[in-house]
Write a structure and sequence with these properties.
With 338 residues, the chain is an alpha+beta fold. The chain has 7 helices and 17 strands. The strands form 5 sheets. Strands 3, 4, 5, 8, 9, 14, 15, 16 and 17 form a 9-stranded antiparallel β-sheet that branches. A two-stranded antiparallel sheet has the order 1-2. A hairpin with a 4-residue loop joins strand 1 and strand 2. It is globular.
């Protein structure tokens, strides 16, 4: 983490402060505590998701999800296709550090008498959560707001399908018990290796401290398993950081739909990773007040990953201290709710 000396500190004017995360308000009769009031500040992390082995990105139907962008068909991965995996990794990081992750993902619930800090942690702050207590539902909005991930390339050349069947042990499709042919025949659609998807992850309103941004970068990592059924095969996406950008107000280019339209209008070869990254970097740098180049963010990520893998004690201590402050924040916010 090393947030005090981190190159991320250039983003401090657009981030919250971990020591000042609550506001004391009054309803005219009594005082109460709530999260600090939002202020002007917007930080956007721009990520290129490179498919490096077949990835299934779909909903109930077998086909890959898609959307029209300026008259052209593109692959569309809704936010949770990537957020889910990164939230899970964030929980694993906290467990490794002994700084949270007490509950399974999407199964947070409080036992009678437990303080909010027993279950809510830094991951809750970054990715959001909603948990049951014996009497209440406690909702926490995510600080990290994920956009859709949209393919740079058009849909048709980026998608393929494979034929599958669930045969019996004898290798046939005849069900001896039912005396009928099996209907376990299906196609699996997948996104082809080499496809790149653009996604933006924004922190708006100065609701997150620098510690939350740092934890998010570590949780995103450099590669991971994403999507539906194909994620069980292992790593299928390599993450490339285009850059990190900050300003007092949001910019429309934080939408991948806008950015991809600009790439097409500029005639950029969307199969050329270097050309795409250079063009996107220029667009975002022009739009925002401050920026950190993708290579610098990648270096910071690599350093955090190396520190974790080597058991760096200072990193663990920072996570421990952050956990105490985040726990105190949730206990103050939901005071008396047990």
């Amino acid at each position: 983490m090393k947030t005090s000396t981190s190159p991320l500190s250039i983003m401090n004017p657009y981030l919250g402060n971990i020591d000042d995360m609550t506001s004391t308000m009054t309803d005219g009769k009594k005082d109460y505590v709530q999260p600090a009031l939002k202020s002007l500040g917007s930080i956007t992390l721009v990520v290129l998701r490179e498919i490096i082995s077949p990835a299934s990105i779909r909903n109930a139907e077998s086909e890959i999800t898609d959307i029209d962008v300026a008259g052209h068909r593109h692959i569309r991965a809704v936010a949770n296709k990537f957020k889910f995996g990164e939230r899970a990794r964030g929980l694993q990081v906290l467990r490794h550090m002994g700084a949270g992750g007490a509950s399974p993902q999407n199964k947070t619930a409080f036992a009678k008498g437990e303080n909010p800090s027993a279950r809510f942690d830094l991951n809750t702050l970054v990715f959001g959560d909603s948990a049951n207590t014996p009497k209440y539902v406690l909702p926490v909005k995510a600080a990290a707001q994920y956009s859709d991930a949209i393919s740079l390339q058009d849909y048709a050349p980026s998608v393929d399908a494979t034929f599958h069947n669930r045969a019996s042990e004898d290798g046939s499709l005849f069900d001896a018990a039912k005396k009928e042919n099996s209907n376990n025949i299906f196609e699996r659609h997948f996104v082809k290796p080499g496809t790149m998807l653009l996604q933006a992850i924004s922190f708006n309103g100065k609701t997150a401290p620098i510690e939350a941004l740092s934890h998010h970068l570590l949780s995103l990592g450099l590669a991971g398993a994403y999507g539906g059924g194909t994620s069980i095969y292992g790593i299928n996406v390599r993450n490339h950081i285009v850059g990190l950008y900050g300003a007092h107000f949001e910019r429309d280019i934080a939408s991948p739909y806008v950015a991809i339209s600009k790439l097409r209008d500029a005639g950029i070869d969307r199969n050329d990773m270097a050309a795409v990254q250079a063009a996107l970097s220029g667009m975002y740098e022009d739009a925002y007040a401050v920026s950190i180049a993708g290579d610098e963010v990648k270096t910071l990520q690599s350093e955090m990953i190396a520190a974790l893998e080597s058991g760096d004690e200072s990193q663990k201590e920072e996570y421990t201290q952050t956990a105490k402050k985040v726990g105190a924040y949730f206990d103050a916010w939901f005071a008396g709710v047990k």
